[in-house]
Amino acid sequence: MAPHKLKHTYGTNLMEQSGDINLLMTQLGHTSTTTTALYTNHELEKAKKAAKKLGEKRTNYREKD
What we know:
With 65 residues, the protein is mainly α. The chain has one domain. It is 80% helix and 0% strand.
């Protein structure tokens, strides 16, 4: 695994587990939350997918009635 990919995987996992952008900044050695925010996008995508699945389940449930 490439060093950048390893760092990104670590950062993404840390953000998922802690939800603390300041901790993530410190761990990754960033001085800007803008740079660190790149590691939060995974959470946003995960939330969008979960919301979509929930919407699909609601639609399917209503169609069964």
